[in-house]
Amino acid sequence: MPEGHSVHRIARQFDRNVVGRRVAASSPQGRFVDGAALLDGREATSVRAVGKQMFLEFDEDVWLRVHLGMYGAWDFAGDIVVDPTIASANGRMGQTNQRGTVLDGEPILDAAGENSLSSIGAPRRARGRVRMSEQTRGLEEETEWPPPVVGQVRLRLLTELTCADLRGPTACQIQTPDEVAATIAKLGPDPLVDDVVEGEERFVSVVRRKPTAIGLLLMDQGVVSGIGNVYRAEMLFRARQNPHTPGRDVPEEVVRDLWRDWVRLLAIGVETGQMMTMDDLDPEAYRAAMASRDDRHWVYHRAGLPCRVCGTSIVVEEAAGRKLYWCPRCQA
């Protein structure tokens, strides 16, 4: 599932390439025809991400709410404003105006496609070609415009220069301003949206009175926004916290450390486009980690492999229908 860093990156992409422009909206798949008709011809006026949800505002107080869910992604094509230091000749690009996955001036591309601007959301390889803008120092690929629809596109938003195709979202709906406010009110604090100090207090207050296991609370978007399966496993390992401990029994200092770690990891994720959870890597290890998820995490997706700290086999189990990875020794 795309986690909070991906959605914030998507919002930044829309802010740079769609906001302030009129869009032609359509639903090639046919499942959002009425909504697309309402958006068609309107100007996008603002965008915001909260946790795993994005809200795109159009003129006359019309809002589009998108929750990517397990399999959703936005595919971008056309002239895309990018930082030239993180553009690559084959059209796969890092995020706009951010440091991106770069070491010694060279882009590091993730084989899973997580660092590709052409598709942000559920990890997948980039679809089609991207015609880059002038900011890419002359790198350009010719392609049909507008690009042909490929696969099941729920919503296509097309400006004169940029195309954004939405595939496989859990939610794609039109909302009023009051409905947007109500949706956001149900979400827990997001470090990139809410005051960080106030967010910490909200998070600590909720967790410390809940009998629910901390491993489940971190995935509850009403408790804290944006954390998914990867960040959940990694944050608990970094805190050396047993995922089955009831929230009310987790020491307050540990709960506060979890929030502060989320603040830090979310910022890294937005900056690099990767869920990087290992610290103090030398350049060679950092390059390997940026190129491969297997070298990027402490416990996630490492079931049966030795813990990087103690050597104990990493355990995987089901928790509320999702896979939970943890070290039974380090997190005892």
Automatic annotation (TrEMBL):
GO terms for biological process: base-excision repair. Belongs to the FPG family. Its cofactor is Zn(2+). PROSITE patterns: FPG_CAT, ZF_FPG_2. PANTHER family: ENDONUCLEASE 8 (PTHR42697:SF1). The keyword Thylakoid does not apply. The lineage of its organism: Bacteria, Bacillati, Actinomycetota, Actinomycetes, Micrococcales. It comes from the Bacteria. This is DNA-(apurinic or apyrimidinic site) lyase. It is an enzyme of class 4 (lyase). It comes from Microbacterium hatanonis. Residues 2-100 form the Formamidopyrimidine-DNA glycosylase catalytic domain.
